[in-house]
Cadherin-12
Amino acid sequence: KLHSDLDKGVGTVKYTLSGDGAGTVFTIDETTGDIHAIRSLDREEKPFYTLRAQAVDVDTKKPLEPESEFIIKVQDINDNEPKFLDGPYVASVPEMSPVGAYVLQVKATDADDPTYGNSARVVYSILQGQPYFSIDPKTGVIRTALPNMDREVKEQYQVLIQAKDMGGQLGGLAGTTTVNITLTDVNDNPPRFPKSIFHLKVPESSHVGSAIGRIRAVDPDFGKNAEIEYNIVPGDGGNLFDITTDENTQEGVIKLKKPLDFETKKAYTFKVEASNLHLDHRFHSVGPFKDTATVKINVLDMDEPPVFSKPMYTMEVYEDTPVGTIIGAVTAQDLDAGSSSVRYFIDWKNDVDSYFTIDATEGTIATNELLDRESTAQYNFSIIASKVSNPLLTSKVDVIINVLDVNEFPPEISVPYETSVCENAKPGQVIQTVTAADKDLSPAGQRFSFRLSPEASNKPNFTVHDYRNNTAGIETRKNGYSRRQQELYFLPVVIEDSSYPVQSSTNTMTIRVCRCDSDGTILSCNVEAIFLPVGLSTGALIAILLCIVILLVIVVLYVALRRQKKKDTLMTSKEDIRDNVIHYDDEGGGEEDTQAFDIGALRNPKVIEDNKMRRDIKPDTLCFPRQRPPVEDNTDIRDFINQRLQENDVDPTAPPYDSLATYAYEGNGSVAESLSSIESLTTEADQDYDYLSDWGPRFKILADMFGEEESYNPDKVT
């Protein structure tokens, strides 16, 4: 209630209210100043409100007093129960833990005012979970209440926890939560076999390494505490069987280490021990954490293939042994109770297997072809044995046949030697050491002997010294050798082996005489080097050869220039009859046409036939003219030509080829007078000019001229 001293109770004062909750939570009577709460208050929502009040004149609306502030505090009552904000809880504790072992601490929160009364004082208690666990009423710590709680008996526990305010007094509010507690495993139980004897049946055909059975020991523990290791106790089955642990099922897997044979042994008995891998020392007093069981294995009889007496057969035979010779045998038998007969045959894989045959019943192996050790020294093939009662049951064995050597090849020098001897060699000097090789398979200790052939023993050039260790030395027998007298020596060496029968061969060694220095180092073995002066170096020899080449080039150039100059002189000579071509009334080839005129017309007809080609130029393809009628022999021309020919033959300055330089002289008193075909004794009617067309393009105009005259001859017109 608000009241102003200025309020006389006549209604002239008005009260107003402002601040937290004014108009919503609280309201004021404007006339009396009474303050009322218009809704429920919650301390946990808002513990206090700050308000402002003022008295105002009703008429003037002016404050009669300054504004005053006051606080309305909400008083707490126990209207909130304790709550477990983190619940429900999950906890664990090892099994077999002692009493009072810590498990978990829980906490409840009360929203009431802890400073006012006991509304917020909480007390904890267990409603469900006794007598296994207990809780501290003030701290909420949960502990074990019973000793030796066994996980294998009960693993999960659900505990109901209550928190009550007002100190647990009657009328207080309470809240609950659930705690799920799990007992964790410890290795407190040894493995145990569910039975003392395990019976297994195993076929004798089981493969080595295969699993033939499983046994299991039970361990109620969990995880790594339940891991079991199995071992075979040394005894009957220690060598034939092995046991391992299946990590997923913790079973003992028995495996076969060696083949089983029903005919040899039908049953096996041994013991298996199961033990934990991870032990807990706190429980050693319980007893040994292992158990033992007996395993009995019965071997089942199976129809098995034949068994060879050996895992592999090795035989020997001499080469060139006659075909059909027995060299050995293989044996296989059926070990089953029925004891069936066995048949043998070769496992054909390639053509090499055809060198041998086998008797299907007896198993004897014989040669089928002649053997050559030098071609193939060893044969490998397989023999298959099958049961007559069941041909599908087969077994295989490898056979190795070594071909023994027969001494049929003579020894020879192992490699061709390039042997040389110095010109200044001394007697007794070893110039080469030789070794021998034999294509035959040499037995241990075989020796080769070396000696000169009888025809070379009397020659005083070289000798052979046998070192008695399958090597020999070639030694000189005279003081010095001369390449000028003899460059090569051929030395026949006889080599014998020590096998039976003795084989020998004669090997000819070539020995070359070389020039050496004083230390015996070879300087030259070439044939050309014999005639070179001693002491010239390679550079000097190259310089000499280069000078010779330069001189030859100079000589060739000189001869070529002289020949060209001589040729030019001949071409430009005023005596050259070929210049007379310009006297013809037809058009010729010009001054450059120095080869167009055939000077054969000026020669003796007999000389024409003998000398048709020029020898001072490269001849072209010749077109021979038709045979012309012979003209009367002129002795003056023949004598002139012979005279000029003789002069050129004896002239030392003449070119190296024969050349008749000029033919300007026509002779005196010639019956034919002029050599020109125009003034020839023969008439035009008797002359045939068709051969001019065969002389080439340079005589084409002349051939056309004479051809036209012939074609338009009025005497021939009919």
Notes: The mean pLDDT is 80. The first strand starts at residue 13 and ends at 19. The CA atoms of residues 232 and 272 lie 5 Å apart. The chain is about 10% helix and 30% strand.
